[in-house]
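Help needed: design a sequence for this.
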């Protein structure tokens, strides 16, 4: 039972984007499985593990919370607290993110075809917010997660943190959900097709650009301008249902400059 629980927890942690290097009690790095085994051997009601990462000039500090079930005695990874420190070690933003165990067995995709070919059905993706997605949310980004609709078909819901509202605990930011079942109609591929982007993936593919944008990343793309592929960076703005564009120096383009890129698309 202990080995089964260890295997389960390892998968939970790794699927949420955390690696194998855990910060130990004396601040040295130890392996994830060893850290889990050491804590579980003491049979506490709950325990925590700590992680630290660098993303650019930002330091990410995470505390993972594990609780033992009263029903089966299993330990579960239930949530993590992520804090972001800026380049001068000032605390910028932090929030807690839930980790759940989902039963996806009854969830299905609507049939999709490309031409005369039916696209193979895909399983629902990770429904928990990964650590990289949490970081992007804390930086003001939008992420896209899959969830079941009322008929158990997969829908895509865009998420954004509301930095003006807190959850009842007074510490965690509320999450805004842009739900297609409530009238939200943002089409990422349709927005991307407004730009003359080189090698834009098809609608039913898991193209790197599209998947990166759904994770809330600032994604590199080459846009044709007068026949020349020019480096730009794209980011989804779910609130305004649009793509924010930055130049190669990460300067955000004005609405007029972005509209000019749309017009370039009509030349190709």
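Sure. Designed sequence:
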């Amino acid at each position: 039972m202990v080995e089964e629980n260890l295997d389960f927890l390892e998968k939970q942690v790794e699927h949420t984007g955390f690696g194998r290097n855990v910060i130990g009690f004396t601040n040295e790095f130890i392996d994830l499985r060893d850290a889990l085994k050491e804590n579980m051997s003491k049979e506490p009601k709950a325990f925590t593990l700590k992680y630290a990462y660098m993303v650019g000039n930002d330091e990410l500090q995470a505390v993972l919370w594990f609780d033992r079930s009263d029903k089966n005695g299993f330990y579960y990874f239930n949530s993590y607290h992520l804090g972001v420190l800026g380049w001068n070690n000032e605390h910028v933003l932090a929030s807690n993110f839930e980790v759940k165990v989902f039963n996806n067995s009854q969830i299905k995709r609507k049939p999709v075809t490309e031409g005369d070919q039916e696209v193979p059905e895909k399983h629902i993706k990770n429904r928990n917010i990964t650590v990289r997605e949490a970081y992007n949310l804390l930086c003001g980004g939008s992420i896209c997660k899959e969830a079941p609709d009322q008929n158990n078909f997969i829908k895509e819901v865009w998420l954004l943190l509301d930095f003006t509202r807190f959850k009842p605990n007074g510490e965690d930011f509320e999450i805004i959900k842009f739900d297609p079942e409530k009238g939200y109609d943002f089409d990422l591929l349709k927005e991307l097709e407004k730009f003359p982007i080189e090698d834009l993936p098809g609608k039913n593919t898991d193209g790197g650009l599209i998947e990166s944008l759904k994770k809330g990343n600032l994604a590199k793309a080459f846009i044709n301008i007068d026949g020349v592929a020019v480096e730009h960076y794209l980011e989804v703005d779910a609130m305004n249902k649009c793509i924010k564009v930055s130049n190669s120096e990460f300067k955000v383009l004005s609405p007029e400059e972005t509209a000019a890129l749309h017009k370039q698309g009509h030349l190709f």
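The first helix runs from residue 2 to 15.
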